[in-house]
Amino acid sequence: MRAVRWHGKKDVRVDNVPDPEIVNPRDAIIKVASTAICGSDLHLYDGMIPSMQAGDILGHEFMGEVVALGRGVTNLKIGDRVVVPFTIACGQCFFCEKTLTSLCDNSNPADNQDLAEASMGHSPSGLFGYSHMLGGYAGGQAEYVRVPFADTGCFKVPAHLTDDQVLFLSDILPTGWMGAENADIESGDTVAVWGAGPVGQFAIRSAFLLGAERVIAIDHRPGRLALAAEAGAETIDFENVDVMAALAETTGGRGPDRCIDAVGMEAHGLAIDNIVDRGKQAVGLGTDRPHVLRQAIVACRKGGTISMPGVYGGLVDKLPMGAFVNKGLTLKTGQTHVHRYMAPLLARIENGEIKPDVIISHRLSLRDAPGAYDNFLNNQDEFTKVVLQP
Amino acid sequence: MADIDGALAPPGTRLSPRKNLKLAERGLSMAAGSLLGVLAARQQGAAGVMLGLAGSLLVARGMSGAAPAKRLLGQRPDEAEVAKAAGWKSAAVASRSVTINAPRAVVWRRFRDLRSWPDWAVNIEAIGPSANGSRLRFTTQDPSGPVQWTGGVTEERPEELLAISSDEGSAVPVRVRYEFHDAPGGRGTEIHAAVAYEPPGGSLGRYAAKLTQREPGIQLRRDLKRFKSLIETGEIAVNDPQGTEPKA
């Protein structure tokens, strides 16, 4: 089969590889119908995530048709059309029983858990196509993919909804939603969202649905800010406006009640702290550029909440912890517990409250993946979201 | 965590005392350091600086009585005790615990079924009765390849404790001990495990085994996770085949 494989920094290729097979009783093989490139795939593309190996198959946003099932899967049948959460979850450990599925104890293979434990103390769940520290599983930017624990990991979707409408249930829609939910939004709140990429777009829309009165989107890509404005957000272009001053003034000096960091470890912009972080990354002295997190802590209103759906990979420094403590802030984060949001968000798609396909800018063939990665990274204003079809 | 010989000890891997040098070792260290210092004073340039640095480190080692490298690589006091009790030249002890989301009776029943250990213990190929039926015969993977040895259950209290030891003179000198407790708050069962073994080649052999990932401490950590996964989910997560080999 054809699959998109990581060969090194800024080097992805479409290669011919063996088809996946059923290995464990609860496995399924999915024939991929649609798959997408995620913003977090760009962290891999940039070589920012440790424990990638040349030849790893990428992709954690995918959907398709069940073509093979292990003998342990009884709730699916061949031919089912399913969306698959990017977090792999067993459904039976302590964390899965609490619906904290991105913290599953069992889906990251024991040998791979060692890598995660060495840096994090404990291992989170395995993910599709996202480094060996996080499972070492082959991803879904391929013609076929093996889904472990398929009985909890395959979510059936109704035929009357198109791929474009349901594909993003696999990651970015629930990620944006959980980003807004983690912000503890109360009725009448003003919410600032850093990053108007796909996750930011869904966080903006989710924030309104969760009761925010105003949402302010912060980015530097005019196209992305325009998309945010379509959802009803006010916008700040950080290239032209002093973000801190603008946030303070527009909120009557209070600061936004809730701040959402939908950017993560590779912040853009020419702020002094970000330039220093970029230098440290370049020479291997630092891993993450937490410019947005620093800004959010200082901008947030006293007693407010910061939610961080953006991905961080390693260590950050120069964090204004004094401000965080003295302003009594709360920080909530985590990889998305996708499984628990699938059904409620599908209902909101069906009743028209959320239209996930508005963020798609390009529909391409899987063969176009290398160019698509390059454009998604370097031509962000035009390439909002790329869907690939094998 | 219970010690390997049954004596209770505080949880976690213990460290050797920071000050781990005997009086004679300290004197020797200081004398050697001073000698290097004298030699350094006669040297010119970088060589002199390096010698001087090495000399002062040795003097500091002797004066403080602390040798961090020896502390890191050498045998710990609890390991020395185990070695003495077992009649081994040296011992390595590793411990680890895991929580399994299942009742103690279920965990015990599955764990006590020694014949099924190869399902989750990667280095164990088979466990069966020995030729005369009175002992257990183990086939395990060593860094050098498969090896057979005999041993037996030395202590057993159902749903509480299982201890297994290799027979004297066995090719693989090893003792393991597993304790079973209810986790607080109805969170299942904790297994507290310790493994002690006589590392072939002493400390150096232990680090060589770690490089090949066949070191018992590493295996204990991974095997407990595999056992947990098997009990909780009915299978053990694997990422093979990754599909990284290009199709011919």
From TrEMBL, chain A:
This protein's source sits in the domain of life called Bacteria
Alphabetic keyword roster: Metal-binding, Oxidoreductase, Zinc
A Pfam family name for this chain? ADH_N
Show the coiled coil region(s).
none
Domain Alcohol dehydrogenase-like C-terminal, residue spans: 198-272
Which residue numbers delimit the Alcohol dehydrogenase-like N-terminal domain?
A: 25-158
The record's GO molecular-function terms, alphabetically, read:
oxidoreductase activity; zinc ion binding
Cofactor(s), names only, from the UniProt record: Zn(2+)
Protein family membership: Belongs to the zinc-containing alcohol dehydrogenase family.
The entry's protein name is Threonine dehydrogenase-like Zn-dependent dehydrogenase
Taxonomic lineage? Bacteria, Pseudomonadati, Pseudomonadota, Alphaproteobacteria, Sphingomonadales
From TrEMBL, chain B:
* Membrane-crossing segments per the record: none
What InterPro entries does this protein's entry cite?
Answer: ORF3, Polyketide_cyclase/dehydratase, START-like_dom_sf
- Gene3D superfamilies named among the record's database cross-references: 3.30.530.20
Entry superkingdom: Bacteria
Question: Tell me, what's a Pfam family for it?
Answer: Polyketide_cyc2
The record, for PANTHER family, names: POLYKETIDE CYCLASE/DEHYDRASE AND LIPID TRANSPORT SUPERFAMILY PROTEIN, POLYKETIDE CYCLASE_DEHYDRASE AND LIPID TRANSPORT SUPERFAMILY PROTEIN
* The protein's name: Putative membrane protein
Q: What is the lineage of its organism?
A: Bacteria, Pseudomonadati, Pseudomonadota, Alphaproteobacteria, Sphingomonadales
